[in-house]
Amino acid sequence: MAKISDVAEKTGYSITTISRAINDHPYVSDKAKKKIFDVMRELDYYPNNVAQQLRGKGTKLIGVIISFVTNPFFTYLVDAIEKVAYQAGYQIVVLQTLEEADREQKFIEMLKKRQLDGLIMTSLDNDSPEVLKLIESGKIVVCNRYLGDKDIPLIRIDEKKATYEATYYLLSKGYRKIAYVSANKPSRIHVDPRFAGYHEALTAFNIDLNWDYVLLRRASIGDGRSTLTDILAMGENKPDAVLVISDEVASGILSQCHLLNIKVPETLAIIGFDDQPIADVLYPGLTTIRQPIQELGEYVATVMIAHIEHKALPEKPELKTKLIIRGTA
């Protein structure tokens, strides 16, 4: 295990200067701080101030990494996690990445520094080797996130099955030009189980994938409105249905359809994902994939606490999705 003296030797700075840099002392230049922190990461050296102060008692803090606090899915998920954690004597710290890799990395380093007892990861940002190395260093539970074959507790619903059934439903209703709308980045689409389910259903009907219909980086109501603009710009070959991986984005598409007098579902069918409360009050009601957010959050928190306390992991409950048929498809 690296020591502060190793950092001093490699950087050429004194131990005093390195300590000041760690504590963000104004006497240390930004250039020196950058060099020191780069070497600390390279040597995998992290000060353990919090753990030393608490003398091994732990922080009783659990970090929850999410992409956007404004996303209603994360609001309900964090609510479920917090209630279980509180009952067990833990507090949660919500860590928002804004889908920025640097933010995510810093949050994972908080665990490495023992500022957190455990970390729940729910966002879909990066899986660079450096970040994966940090993930492997501590108590991590991954919720609805794909991390390849890493040996990390992974809790997720069957997203592939959910989108397969939704796409199959649209196809069985006669829709053939179905767009896929997601917040995902292009670099992650090939490891996206929701996209895989959509693609597999098209294949079952002998329909080739049209990449023009794969619309990515759409995460808000405003993105939904602009998505409809992009769809209409396709002219004669525009989609007749959309599978949207967020009720929020789907509601933006539906809202824009009303403004432009586009009939739903006659001209454009819409299916969302999550079954947020807004889905039932929209007109027409939003057909969507319901996922068990509360059960998911409760189980994630239970697993996290068992992991921290070195207890046997609880049996996984059935976390089933359900296609809720309303008026948009």
Automatic annotation (TrEMBL):
Name listed for the protein in its UniProt record: Transcriptional regulator
Pfam families per the UniProt record, alphabetical: LacI, Peripla_BP_1
GO molecular function: DNA-binding transcription factor activity; transcription cis-regulatory region binding
Gene3D superfamilies the record matches: 3.40.50.2300, lambda repressor-like DNA-binding domains
InterPro entries: HTH_LacI, Lambda_DNA-bd_dom_sf, Peripla_BP/Lac1_sug-bd_dom, Peripla_BP_I
Organism: Pseudolactococcus piscium
Boundaries of every HTH lacI-type domain copy: 2-56
UniProt keyword terms in alphabetical order: DNA-binding, Transcription, Transcription regulation
